[in-house]
Amino acid sequence: MKQKKWMTGLGVIVLATSLAACGDTADDPSMEMSEEQSMDHSAMDHSGSGEVPEGLMEASDPTYPVGSTAMMTADHMPGMEGVEATIVGAYDTTVYAVSYTPTTGGNPVENHKWVIHEELENPGDAPLAEDEKVVLTADHMDGMNGAEATIDTAIDATVYMVDYTTEDGEEVTNHKWVTESELEAMK
């Protein structure tokens, strides 16, 4: 485990050094990126079909009902933090951050947010323990479906499917998933 953390830290340092070499962004806050934003999300399917996994239960009394709007504070994808989202689905489940190596090859994906319990192959009872191995059935990113993953965190929460427009104008529909803690009431 220490070696994994050491390698992750080294990777972050190398990435930060590489980005710094591309130009001075210290005076331009719009160019700053969080560690999670620096991960390659180019293979992520920002929009979805709107289909939900079998067995997923709609939330009976969500904080943000279907059709309402909320401000997103999530930053696990570029362009989503600080934009208005329209709620298209609200569900009660266990949500996981997971790490996995895509079935299509490429670099491992660390701490991917979010995969829900119903997007795991034969998961058993929720919640699963940290460091437990699972097989993903989600297809949010290329190479995710069928990949073996490790549970990084597990949270029982209401999760939302949302529509939004990114800061650069990309329209995203049926995005899966945003947790309730990543939304704020509109002011």
TrEMBL record:
Residues in DUF1541 domain copies: 66-117, 133-180
Ranges of compositional bias, category Acidic residues: 26-37
Key words of the record: Signal
Pfam families the UniProt entry points to: DUF1541
Positions of region (Disordered): 26-56
InterPro entries: DUF1541 (IPR011438)
Signal peptide as annotated in the record: 1-23
Stored Gene3D superfamilies: Domain of unknown function DUF1541
Protein name: YdhK family protein
Natural source organism: Exiguobacterium aestuarii
